[in-house]
């Protein structure tokens, strides 16, 4: 009788364990880098919304650099090392050539909300979806950023010819234009930008406001541009396609249904907090503000057009680059 009771207890315990396993919360690992900042608020807000909507049954576990190097996040997504990640397309243009179309210098200053809409439209383009599918990746949402501007520790910039020999850390579209003026594209990891400026490895960095704040470039800089208007980087959030397909319907709905709210939070926070802090920081640091003249801007735009045409020619044999460019240009023109 005693042995039967022990068997019954063991059976009940096993059943309880199995029930716990069945109802265990789903947890996704999310690979970011650096530290929490305006650039990652879309993911932070998404995690908050998903957990609330599922009563904790679905969680996004965010890691800042603990899962992968930033330039290897797309690779990690491809083989399921983690379920969600952020990456910047200019980190590895050959891996994601189609979305680099949004990094081209369109020479227009558009709102963050509009940039998010443009990126979303481009992400849904069949050519782009097919490109990312090679990595078993589904584009979830963007991380829209204002036009990039340069902070440099070099001597003052008075003429466009002063870009000659300047070693700049920046994305493809911007560097395509500045390269025609003699600037040298110099790649260093995001976390090493300040150190690289201090040691003289680079002379300047081209960033959106949040990144200048995060890397403290303005603390060692001498001048900053105010109206470069040659674009910014495209750093999307992607999910592993198989993981997305395997989610419970309620969890998938909570995830996808929270994107718009997460993006609205991101844009509001960036425009009303980050940009203001950036302008205050460069003013307090006493940086000389370089504003390009209409004549200089016209020259930059002329160079930007040649960069756009070179992009079409470069990728034309890989996919219909002209059609994708035309589609993206239409989005910027609206």
Blueprint (SSEs and pairs):
Blueprint (H helix, E strand, L loop, with lengths): L1 H21 L3 E7 L8 H13 L4 E7 L8 H6 L5 E3 L25 H12 L2 H8 L3 E5 L7 E4 L14 E3 L2 H9 L3 E2 L7 H7 L4 E4 L1 H7 L7 E3 L11 E4 H6 L2 H8 L2 H27 L2 E3 L3 H22 L5 H13 L1
Parallel strand pairs: 1-2, 1-3, 6-7, 6-8, 9-11
Antiparallel strand pairs: 3-10, 4-10, 5-8, 5-9
Helix pairs in contact: 2-11, 4-13, 6-12, 8-11
Question: What structural class should be given to the helix and strand makeup?
Answer: alpha/beta
Mean pLDDT: 91
State the separation between the terminal residues, measured CA to CA. Answer: 81 Å
Main pleated-sheet profile: 6 strands, mixed
Strand content: 5-15%
Strand order of the largest sheet: 7-6-8-5-9-11
Write up what this structure looks like.
It is built from 13 helices and eleven strands. It has helices spanning 2-22, 41-53, 73-78, 112-123, 126-133, 172-180, 193-199, 209-215, 241-246, 249-256, 259-285, 294-315, 321-333; strands spanning 26-32, 58-64, 84-86, 137-141, 149-152, 167-169, 184-185, 204-207, 223-225, 237-240, 288-290.
């Amino acid at each position: 009788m005693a042995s039967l009771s022990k068997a019954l207890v063991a059976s009940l315990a096993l059943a309880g364990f199995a029930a716990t396993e069945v109802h265990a919360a789903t947890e996704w690992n999310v690979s970011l880098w650096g530290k929490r900042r305006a650039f990652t608020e879309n993911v932070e807000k998404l995690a908050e919304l998903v957990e609330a909507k599922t009563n904790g049954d679905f969680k996004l576990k965010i890691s800042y650099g603990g899962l992968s190097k930033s330039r290897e996040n797309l690779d990690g997504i491809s083989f399921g090392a983690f379920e969600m990640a952020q990456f910047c397309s200019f980190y590895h243009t050959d891996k994601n050539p189609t979305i680099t179309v949004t990094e081209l210098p369109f020479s227009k200053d558009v709102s963050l909300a509009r940039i998010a809409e443009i990126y979303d439209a481009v992400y849904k383009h069949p050519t782009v979806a097919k490109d990312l599918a090679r990595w078993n990746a589904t584009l979830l949402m963007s991380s829209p950023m204002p036009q990039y501007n340069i902070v440099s520790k070099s001597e003052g910039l008075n003429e466009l010819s002063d870009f000659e020999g300047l070693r700049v850390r920046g994305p493809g579209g911007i560097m395509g234009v500045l390269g025609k003026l003699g600037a040298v594209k110099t790649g260093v990891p995001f976390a090493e930008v300040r150190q690289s400026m201090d040691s003289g490895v680079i002379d300047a960095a081209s960033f959106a406001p949040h990144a200048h704040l995060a890397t403290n470039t303005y603390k060692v800089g001498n001048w900053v541009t105010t109206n470069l208007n040659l674009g910014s980087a495209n750093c999307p959030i992607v999910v592993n396609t198989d993981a997305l397909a395997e989610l419970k319907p309620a969890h998938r709905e909570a995830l996808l249904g929270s994107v718009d709210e997460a993006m609205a939070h991101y844009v509001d926070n960036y425009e009303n907090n980050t940009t203001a802090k950036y302008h205050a920081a460069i003013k307090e640091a006493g940086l000389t503000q370089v504003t390009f003249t209409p004549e200089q801007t016209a020259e930059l735009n002329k160079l930007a057009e040649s960069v756009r045409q070179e992009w079409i020619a470069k990728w034309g044999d890989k996919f219909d680059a002209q059609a994708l460019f035309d589609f993206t240009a239409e989005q910027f023109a609206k």
